[in-house]
């Protein structure tokens, strides 16, 4: 059965997602409105509501779109190098303005289960899947312990990054990421 209504214009969709992301970084989640997104994107509010059910959905899509563009999955042939690059890129993303947004979304998610579910599904799970792909490749090449739980390996590698961002507030720099990855790989290597 064909879809009803006009299909999404790729240009309008891109403009909406970009506007939502920019406003989120500039003002924070609470200050973003569908009206402001529509104005900046040069579209009507009805266009946004036709494609997204609410402000949270369009703002989250804008954020996740930017995250996917800025966090490529490396394939150097070395699991250690791949994880180091991936974790370093993720850290750079998290210590920038996006980190404040991540903390804000997680905080808002404590009061809004639908928002938290969307955050987990569209931001956390893709990053987790990418990290598991990296570890799986390393496991298949014999670089990691044969009985390694990939899920626990991801937790061991990436948990400290989120812990520092959300709990301790300690800095996350390149040397810190290298130290975390090096320590974790002491327990992961074959």
Automatic annotation (TrEMBL):
Domain of life: Bacteria
Keywords of this entry: DNA-binding, Transcription, Transcription regulation
InterPro entries: Homeodomain-like_sf (IPR009057), HTH-type_TetR-like_transc_reg (IPR050109), HTH_TetR (IPR001647), Tet_transcr_reg_TetR-rel_C_sf (IPR036271), TetR_C (IPR011075)
The protein's name in its UniProt record: TetR family transcriptional regulator
Gene3D superfamilies assigned: Homeodomain-like (1.10.10.60), Tetracycline Repressor, domain 2 (1.10.357.10)
UniProt DNA-binding residue ranges: 33-52
Sequence ranges assigned to domain HTH tetR-type in this UniProt record: 10-70
């Amino acid at each position: 059965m064909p879809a009803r209504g006009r299909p999404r214009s790729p240009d309008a969709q891109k403009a909406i997602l970009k506007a939502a992301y920019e406003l989120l970084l500039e003002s924070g989640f609470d200050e973003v409105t569908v009206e402001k997104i529509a104005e900046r994107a040069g579209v009507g509010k009805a266009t946004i509501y036709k494609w997204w059910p609410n402000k949270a959905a369009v703002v989250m899509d804008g954020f996740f779109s930017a995250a996917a563009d800025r966090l490529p999955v490396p394939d150097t042939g070395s699991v250690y190098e791949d994880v180091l690059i991936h974790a370093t890129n993720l850290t750079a993303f998290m210590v920038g303005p996006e980190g404040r947004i991540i903390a804000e979304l997680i905080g808002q998610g404590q009061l809004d289960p639908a928002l938290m579910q969307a955050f987990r599904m569209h931001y956390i799970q893709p990053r987790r899947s990418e990290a598991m792909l990296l570890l799986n490749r390393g496991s298949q090449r014999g670089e990691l312990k044969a009985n390694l739980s990939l899920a626990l390996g991801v937790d061991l590698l990436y948990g400290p990054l989120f812990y520092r961002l959300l709990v301790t507030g300690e800095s996350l720099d390149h040397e810190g990421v290298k130290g975390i990855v090096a320590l974790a790989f002491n327990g992961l290597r074959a």
